[in-house]
Write a structure and sequence with these properties.
Layout (H helix, E strand, L loop, with lengths): L2 E3 L4 E8 L4 H14 L6 H8 L1 E6 L2 E6 H6 L10 E4 L15 E2 L5 E4 L5 E3 L2 H7 L4 E7 L2 E6 L7
Antiparallel strand pairs: 1-2, 2-6, 2-10, 3-4, 5-7, 8-9, 9-10
Length: 153
């Protein structure tokens, strides 16, 4: 999982090709997390006893969901760095529908706070993703800003 260390926070950047509204993509992401859980039901998943699953290309990334759900510190990033990936041709296996986490960015750009759409508290509660605190849409990309705990190696 790609994490970026700032002086005050560790955050993860998850990028989706935009083909629909970001709200629809977020809903699909939550559905995918639930459907990809090999054990138990959604309630157990959201209680933090399971893992969430993300794909980059064909590699499985696992983030302990309890760490994300129980780490409710507010983001302290004053000017977040946003990683813009290479644009792959439509239908390419390198741009899966679920999105991907960029490991080796070719371009890093600053995004001003005015370009970040903070998620309403109601939506955060409804989608059960308190670790997801903002959305940026840039060109044909949907960029989710997540404030996750550091991953243990």
């Amino acid at each position: 999982m790609k994490t970026v260390d700032d002086t005050n926070a560790t955050y993860t950047i998850l990028i989706f090709p935009l083909g629909k509204s970001w709200g629809a993509v977020l809903s699909e992401l939550i559905d995918d997390i639930v459907s990809l859980t090999a054990f138990g039901d959604a309630e157990a998943l959201m209680a933090g006893r399971q893992n969430s699953f993300f794909y980059e290309n064909r590699t499985l990334f696992i983030t302990p969901l309890w760490q994300a759900l129980h780490d409710e510190r507010p983001p302290h990033i004053k000017r977040p760095k946003v990683i813009i990936p290479k644009l792959y041709p439509e239908g390419s296996s390198y741009a899966p529908r679920r999105g991907y986490i960029v490991e080796d960015p070719e371009v890093i750009t600053d995004v001003s706070l005015t370009q970040i759409h903070p998620l309403p508290e109601l939506m955060q509660t409804a989608l059960r993703v308190p670790w997801l605190w903002g959305v940026v849409t840039l060109e044909n990309q949907l960029i989710l800003l997540m404030d996750l705990p550091p991953q243990e190696v």
